[in-house]
């Protein structure tokens, strides 16, 4: 009986946190996304254009175009409750190899 209670509590907590992350995703503005991406890619905010956005339960995946570049970047960040992670983008250059 105690196992069922603990299991039910864990499932409810997981659903609650996932739901809060999803609700938070609906309130994240494009400007917030651009600012996170500009910081991650070390470019000015005004050079970022969001091409595609796919909000999930606890993350937002999106594609951006950087002004003056032909390639797009795939990025994401996670959300839970009122906290967001920093943006992570694929294909960013490594400053140690420059």
Our Rg estimate from Cα atoms comes to: 17 Å
User: What count of structural domains?
Assistant: 1
Helix-strand category: alpha+beta
Main sheet attributes: strand count, strand direction, barrel closure: 5 strands, antiparallel
H and E string = HHEEEEE
Instruction: Report low-confidence residues grouped into runs of 5 or more.
Output: 15-23, 94-98
Give an overview in words:
Strands 1, 2, 3, 4 and 5 form a 5-stranded antiparallel sheet that branches. This protein is α+β, with helices and mostly antiparallel strands and 98 residues long. It has helices spanning 2-27, 30-41; strands at 48-55, 59-66, 72-80, 83-84, 88-89. The chain is elongated, with a radius of gyration of 17 Å. It has one domain (2-93). Keywords: Signal. It comes from Zophobihabitans entericus. This is Lipoprotein. Residues 1-23 form the signal peptide.
List keywords for this structure.
98 residues; alpha+beta; disordered C terminus
What secondary-structure arrangement, pairings included, does this model have?
Elements: H1 2-27, H2 30-41, E1 48-55, E2 59-66, E3 72-80, E4 83-84, E5 88-89
Antiparallel strand pairs: 1-2, 2-3, 3-4, 3-5
Signal peptide: 1-23
Keywords: Signal
Protein name: Lipoprotein
Q: Could you give a short description of this structure?
A:
This is Lipoprotein. The protein is an alpha+beta fold and 98 residues long. The chain has 2 helices and 5 strands.
